[in-house]
Amino acid sequence: MSSRTSDVLVIGGGIIGLVTAWRAAQRGLAVTVADPEPGGGAAQVAAGMLAAVTELHYGEETLLALNLESARRYPAFAAELTDLTGHDLGYRRCGTLAVALDSDDRAGLRELHALQQRSGLESEWLSGRECRRLEPMLAPGVRGGLRVDGDHQIDPRRLAAALVAACERAGVVFHRVRAARLDVAGDRAVG
């Protein structure tokens, strides 16, 4: 790290680290990101699902309101980032079709559907034939599935590139190195 002081030090330039850095810099804070390849890592291989309903799991019900509010705000976030950078993020409101390939998958999806309904979420159970009507390339053996129209997706590679550009535009300083350790004095990182 350099001798320059920052108000905020973000270790790791993945999607969350980049959003954190960008938003902090927008608020007038001096921000530094330490990452050998900002926007690399998981962003290069993730599916980009924004599926608050489909990805609900038992035990996460307390997070549901936060996840739904985040999903509600995502279109405005994506539009803001696109307007600022000119990057096409590959954002799509396309819904999710989760399919069951065997009886175990079907039982699991039925349980998820029941959890979604108890949680007041919108999803529709479909037969295998109805799933194939929506997606003709599915295998003939598909046993059923869930259709969730409220889910959406983004291309995480494009999102990461746009966030790096937004951070650079906002004055975020990138140290393209791996942080091996963090030196702390009092309550502040010093190196």
What does this structure look like?
The protein is of the alpha/beta class and 191 residues long. The chain has helices spanning 15-26, 64-85, 103-118, 128-134, 156-169, and strands at residues 8-11, 31-34, 49-50, 96-100, 124-127, 144-148, 152-153, 173-175, 184-185, 188-189. A hairpin with a 2-residue loop joins β9 and β10 (188-189). It folds into 2 domains: 1-47 and 155-191, 3-Layer(bba) Sandwich (FAD/NAD(P)-binding domain); 49-154, no CATH class. A 3-stranded parallel β-sheet has the order 1-2-8, covered by helices on one side. A 3-stranded antiparallel β-sheet has the order 4-6-5.
What is the fold's blueprint, element by element?
Blueprint lengths: L7 E4 L3 H12 L4 E4 L14 E2 L13 H22 L10 E5 L2 H16 L5 E4 H7 L9 E5 L3 E2 L2 H14 L3 E3 L8 E2 L2 E2 L2
Parallel strand pairs: 1-2, 2-8
Antiparallel strand pairs: 3-7, 4-6, 5-6, 9-10
Helix pairs in contact: 1-5, 2-5
